[in-house]
Amino acid sequence: MEKLWTGRFHKALDSQVNDFNSSISFDSRMYAQDILGSIAHATMLQKGGILSEQDAEQIVSGLQAILEDIQSGALQIDPTAEDIHTFVEAELTARIGDVGKRLHTARSRNDQVALDLRLYLRDQISEVAALVRALIEAVTDKAEEHAETVVPGYTHLQRAQPIVFGHHLMAYAMMLLRDLDRLHDCNKRMAVSPLGSCALAGTTYATDRAFSSKLLGFEKPCENSMDGVSDRDFAIELASAISILMMHLSRFSEEIILWCSWEFKFIELDDAYSTGSSIMPQKKNPDIAELVRGKTGRVYGNLITLLTMLKGLPLAYNKDMQEDKEAIFDSLDTVKQCLAVFAPMIATMKVLGENMRRAAAGGFIGATDCADYLVKKGLPFRTAYKIVGEIVAHCIENGLTLETLPLAEYQKFSPLFAQDVFAAIDLDACAKKRISYGGTSPDSVRRQVQYVREALQTAE
User: Fold this and answer.
1) Residues 402, 364: contact at Cβ < 8 Å?
2) Which of 18, 187, 223, 423 has its CA 20 to 30 A from that of 138?
3) What are the C-alpha distances in Å from 119 to residues 86, 138, 277, 409, 455?
4) Contact of 422 with 405, CB cutoff 8 Å
């Protein structure tokens, strides 16, 4: 296939250099966006009298036929083409003759590739957002189901205070809601069209960039043509948002892995989302969660690739920028794959509430409530804190818990203790009493579930 830039050169490109220079292997996925961008460009050229109505009609119908043929499989993308832009233009010219060569009037591959990437990423954001929404819904459903299931809350991976499992899950729902918001923000800043920026300086033709922008669903054209072709902030911002999203999935995965272990045994994953061992028949491994945790690193690496690729580039376009696509495409492919398996993994996991409660009973996690009990009897909190600390130490030495320590023993530490102390440190009561906004009481968890569901409706 003849190169678009052969006029200046007297010698064919070395075959190894051609392979090194080519991007068709990865940018071919943008064929639909490339064709739709070209249709909008041709329509704009015809509107401004730059293309005749007859030529524009031939170009648009030819492009539509190419799109249909690629989608149906009737036309295969040539792997020897330099890039998807070259392939589409060459195929158009082969079908409709020299009229096809008029399509590239008043544009460059520089603004064309910037346009295609924006269009493609905007479509991908919609797909990722839909998967995030599905995961949020799975998490909130599970949280509502376990709004009264008591589990130890942890700090430093040490049992700290009693909470309900639904509260723990809703923390992840809030993280994911922020991820969804970040994706929407990325889309807003991506809704600026570079088409018509040409190579870097604009064009001598009287183009209507606002018109072509509107045809493609953008809010407006970019204000500076050099920025239009050299900007990849939108790709970095999306890579960053995906990295944060993957970080949240990785944290969630780490907890799922812990909860599945025999040391915790808080949950059991469905067989469809677990694997076994080739040598140990008893094993049921949380491989899906482990893979999500592992794949987070490659997404971080893609973000660093984009930042490093751009950090030293002078304006405007440089061939280095071809490296943007594989990095952001891989991040998108990875996060979609992870989200697609994560939501059903959460929806089908079995929560072992009795094990959770047993763990909560054995970790002195009612100690703060015990101290609060003394505070309500009139002691300063620091004094109450010290007394309860001494009680915990005594229980540990004697193999007791706060629940099993006799009242007579309590009263050796303070005469303020009475029979009602046992109601104060009851695990269910401890969770239900945390009624502050955003707290772990069952009613609070249900309110959080409602908040997230309403937020999802608003975000539609």
Assistant:
1) yes
2) 187
3) 18, 30, 44, 71, 26
4) no
Return the bridge partners of 152, or none: 162
> Catalytic: 167?
no
CA-CA distance, 124 to 331, in Å (whole number)?
Answer: 11
Which one is catalytic: 10, 156, 278, 436?
156
Give the H or E element holding residue 212.
helix 209-215
Evaluate if residue 173 carries a pLDDT over 70.
Answer: yes
The catalytic position among 277, 331, 394, 441 is: 277
Task: For residue 234, give the amino acid letter.
Answer: F
Active site residue 156: yes
For position 5, what pLDDT does the model report? 44
At residue 175, does pLDDT exceed 60?
Answer: yes
Distance of CA 79 to the CA centre of its chain: 31
- Cα–Cα dist 129/132, whole Å: 5
Task: Tell which residue, 118, 328, 105, has the closest CA to residue 221.
Answer: 118
Residue type, 145: E
Helices (H), 216-366: 225-230, 233-260, 287-310, 323-348, 353-361
DSSP string, 28-39: GGGHHHHHHHHH
Average pLDDT over residues 441-458: 97
- For 16-51, what is each residue's pLDDT tens digit? 666 666 899 999 999 999 999 999 999 999 999 999
Q: Average pLDDT over the chain, rounded to whole?
A: 94
Rounded to 5 degrees, what are φ and ψ at 150?
Answer: -75, 135
Query: Which comes out higher in pLDDT, residue 440 or 280?
Result: 440
Q: What are phi and psi of 192, to 5 degrees?
A: -125, 125
